[in-house]
Amino acid sequence: MRRKVFVEEQGLFHETDRDEHDDAAVHIAAFCSDRIIGTVRVYPDRDDLWWGGRLAVLKGYRGKAGKLLVRAATEVVKQNRARSFRAYVQLENVAFFKTLGWTSVGKICEYHGKPHQLMEAHLT
Questions:
Q1: Nearest alpha carbon to residue 1 among 33, 43, 42, 30
Q2: Does residue 25 contact residue 18 with C-beta atoms inside 8 Å?
Q3: In the chain, what are the domain boundaries?
Q4: Which class in CATH covers the domain with range 2-121?
């Protein structure tokens, strides 16, 4: 699923988007019937700081599954007693994250040649 979005559709990665965080991450999936339509991962950086990433939703389900995935990811992070939850967000998705209460932190940076904004969720 992630390969379809990040490699084939967006061209962010050449063959795979897997990295050193995948093995330790909690992977969350959204389903429609028996088909995975979206996914996101969360992983700890340290006890009080967790990161989210690789939020991907198939084209036909965008605008529907993303909000559920981000909320589920936030709940996992809260259950693990994190004080901070951050993610590098593609610029076209910043407004979406803001509707979920996330705030921008710092300046825009490049990630795999595409501009991203560091954002943080409010966990209270």
A1: 30
A2: no
A3: 2-121
A4: alpha beta
